[in-house]
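Reviewer 2 asked us to include a model.

Predict the structure of this chain.
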Amino acid sequence: MNFLLWGGQLQVYLIIGALLFAIGFFGFFRHRTLVGMLISGELIMAGAALNFMAFGRFRAADVVAGQTFALFIMGIAAAEAAIVLSIMIAVYRNYRSIETKDLKDLEG
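Predicted model (structure tokens):
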């Protein structure tokens, strides 16, 4: 807890962002369904956005830079969610499952 004593609020945000990123990374490789992988990918992007916001707030000359990066990440996350959901609908229509182990025909 030494990082709290010397005014290190940036470190608190970076630790939380790193935890979000690590949980998302672990979940992405651990989940067997496409929905779980989608949620884990969103956690990865949330961790990255939090780190950009923290650096923008505490280190950048212009605070708007971190907010711009975070908005860009949110836009990418929304586009990714829309694309993945449409792919999941197409996969479910063809295979009647969204389990990744059932998608052996897609291996290249």
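The two ends are 49 Å apart (CA to CA). Helices lie at 2-5, 9-30, 34-58, 64-95. We have added this to the supplementary material.
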